Amino acid sequence: MSAAYQYTDEDSVPILLERSAARRPQSTAITIGAVQIPYGGLLRKVQSLAQGLFEQGIRSGDRVALMLPNTPAYVMSCYALLQLGAVVVNVSPSSQGAELVSILRQSEAKVLIALDVFLPGLYRVLDKSPVKCLIISSVQGLEKQLPVPAQVPSPIDLTTLMLPPAHAGMTRAARCDDLAVIQCTSGSTGTPKCVMLSHRNLLASVQQSAQWMNEPETPNAGVLCVIPFFHVFGMTIGLHLTLAKGYRMILVPRFDALDLMPIVKLIETERPLSFPAVPTLWAALLSHPAATPELLSCIQVASSGGAALPDWVAARFRERTGRPIYEAYGLSEVAGAALCSAFPQGSPVGSVGRPLSAVTVKLCDPSDPARQVAAGEVGELALCGDVVMRGYVGNPVLTDSVLRDGWLYTGDLARQGEDGCYSIVDRKDDLIITSGYNVYPSEVESVLAQHPAVADVAVSGRADRLRGQVVIAYVVLREGQSVSAEELTALCRSNLPDYKVPRSVLCTDKVPRNPAGKTLRRSLPSVG
What we know:
- This protein folds into 3 domains: 38-196, Rossmann fold (3-Layer(aba) Sandwich); 255-428, Rossmann fold (3-Layer(aba) Sandwich), CATH 3.40.50.12780; 431-523, GMP Synthetase, Chain A, domain 3.
- 27% of the residues lie in helices and 27% in strands.
- Helix 7 (232-245) links the parallel strand 10 (222-225) and strand 11.
- The radius of gyration is 24 Å and the shape is globular.
- The strands form 6 sheets. It has an 8-stranded mixed β-sheet, sandwiched between helices.
- It is α/β, with parallel strands linked by helices.
């Protein structure tokens, strides 16, 4: 393995940027619009900002919330804070009101760095938070136009903190096992949780991802960074791995699924080698008339995570490029990916491949975690290794419920095939138990999705006095198509045992999903 990805107990995440800047100081680190920032220049900006943040009183261990899109301000702020040994608290810019206050309180963030366009919402709630210092990356000058409410700190312009370092090359203040990031995630619960990730977690995640792609690297290749850096997938793959490789981040601050032309234009002009994306973006792109084989030919590493990749999306990309979309399974609690399709050949459709090098996997009986299930059986996926989180901030009960003897019990149900590859079946919480039989919603959904009139489908359980639960299906019909509930029930009956057949099939306008495309079953309409 290249020395660029190795680390010791004394190292921390900023070493990734330092090494690449030393190897290729003139190579481009960031492309955003017409702006190009070389590695040497980026490192100098990070060190200058670290000095400015130090002057503001930020020290090792302090928690600083970043509420920024994919911009140079995020990259510089993140690495400057990590340089100081401070802890980055990743917050989605869509967070607001009570949810935002909850995250800031849970994480104990004393400083917030945000875009000025978020100031109206921030001014309404910051007096209820522990934030004592507000730093703004200004794009519209709103910090000069809006009155600052009482009990809210006056905003400081981020650019004014770019100070010459007090000495050449500020010493990294953190070590490998120090806390680096608090990753805010709602996961499958809908309630924000604050995941604690160390520098070791992040460095191990970068190292195993670099090992996964076992081919000679293309110098300064482009990576299309659409997935937000505040998301764990975007942070580890789009930001840290890209910097470790000395690749070029093509930053996309904002993405509108209804207007794909900016993404198409970026692929045309920048010709990225790597494009990590969520299934909803892949589906939208591959449905666009501009997504021709010529357009997609540059993308050598197409990856997908966050939710299951539809079979037709995987098939269409392979038809047009001759290459797979590499489907990964990961979560915030393991600093990104834990399993991934094999490189370069890919893995069977519907599979998330095998464990990456820093991860050990076992499948446990959901009702008896001490017992591992046999190959081919469904069990709860448990993970162990250097990527596994410390725990949840301020929530020892929740931490103890998922971390036991060094193993993270994910709550996801999976099956290992004869080829050694793993397939995610469902969430343990989504399991339907009817008359004592287990029904996995994904099994029923895959059958209903075969009908040509069905555009989307979700399955959940409804309480039943006799059976405990019964299966309910919600379908979205394609425009101009029609099908009866009886016809869909018959399709299920011809492909599934009777206890898995939905007792009701209901039409709905939309299946609720998170931005990655994962079904939000708790948000499905209630059925009496």
